[in-house]
Amino acid sequence: MGRVFKKAWKVGALALAIVLIPTAALAVVGTFSSSTTTPAVTGTNTSAAAGSPGVLGTNTGGGLNTRYGVQGTANGTAGVGVSGTGTKYGVFSNGPLGVANGKFLTCVALTGCVGTGALVNGSVTAAKLGAGSVGSGALQAGSVGSSALQAGSVGSAALQAGSVGNGALASGSVTNDKVAPGAISTVGFIGGTVSAVALGGVPKFVGPTTVVTVGTGQKLVVSETAHLDSGGGATIYSDICLDSGGGPFNNGNFLDHVAIPAGVETLVTATEAYAPAAGTYTVGLCDAGGGFGTVGAGDWAQGFALVITGP
Predict the structure, then answer these.
(1) 14 lies in a domain?
(2) Is the pLDDT assigned to residue 280 strictly greater than 90?
(3) Residue 256 carries which DSSP code?
(4) Contacts of 253 (CB under 8 A, 6+ apart)
């Protein structure tokens, strides 16, 4: 009887010890491996409840060191560390999406990483884009409309020379409220009657002029239209000329070759852009030195000269 009692006591004590062992002590720690396409570890959850995980990884450590709930590594040039497939999300991030320094966000889909409907209005601001992070080759024609850009969001330093062509700006898209104060520092108006001028193979002004002062790095844009009357059928090689004291000169281009019949008024227009040295210039319409004869007194001439500051 005593022996039976002792055995029963030992069995009962062992059962009580098993019950009192903490659950954490039963946790499995080990390495599982497979050399085939069969997964080394498989987790399956048949619950239809929201948030039911097949595999759950949690890191409860504290401190500032980087830790991972789940980490996946795959070797080789075609290795994929973590792959997910789902009807709503393949992989869901309930936090900021991080990309390691020196790595890139690569997308297989032809539509790109981020579709047009994936970004909430105003979610991407200029402060979130590093300088040069979006190149011109990354934007399709017409992908950025004028309504997508806030006033001042694109500065002159962000545009390369020639990056915006004439066809890229709709009529009226650039108004005077979009021109920075001080961008046009001087406006000179040209207007008056055309006096008779004898031509002789060197540039000569053939209409009214105006005087402007150009600073270092500034640009000069001049345009003038005039009715001219040839006194002897001369060919007018019209252009815009500058004169800083040594006589009118142009940049070597003859913009309009207009043969003006004697006694017939002909409308002539020339426009030029210059980047001259700093100084004071007389500017206006001229015969650029290609014609001989006489420009007779004609009608009125009108135009303007702009001194522009900026790139």
Answers:
(1) no
(2) yes
(3) E
(4) 239, 272, 288
Residue for token pair 């001080």? 182
Looking at every residue in the chain, the average pLDDT score rounds to: 75
Cα separation of 258 and 239, whole Å?
Answer: 11
Q: How many domains does the chain have?
A: 1
Note whether residue 123 is domain-resident: no
Give the strands of the sheet with 256-259, arranged side by side.
204-214, 279-287, 235-243, 256-259
Tracing tokens 């059962």 back to the chain, one arrives at 15
Which run of H or of E encompasses 142?
none
Assess whether pLDDT exceeds 70 at residue 175: no
Residues 185, 283: contact at Cβ < 8 Å?
A: no
CB 296 within 8 A of CB 229: yes
Is residue 251 in some structural domain?
Answer: yes
Indicate whether this model's pTM tops 0.85: no
- What confidence tier does 223 reach under pLDDT thresholds 50, 70, 90? very high
Does residue 254 sit within a domain? yes
115-133 residue pLDDT tens: 666 677 777 776 677 666 6
Segments forming the whole domain that contains residue 275: 193-238+247-288
Whether residue 292 contacts residue 234, with contact meaning beta carbons closer than 8 Å, is answered with yes
Q: Give the span between the Cα atoms of 292 and 302, in whole angstroms.
A: 24
Contact 237/288 with Cβ under 8 angstroms?
Answer: yes
Q: What is the pLDDT of residues 299-310, one digit of tens each?
A: 788 999 999 887
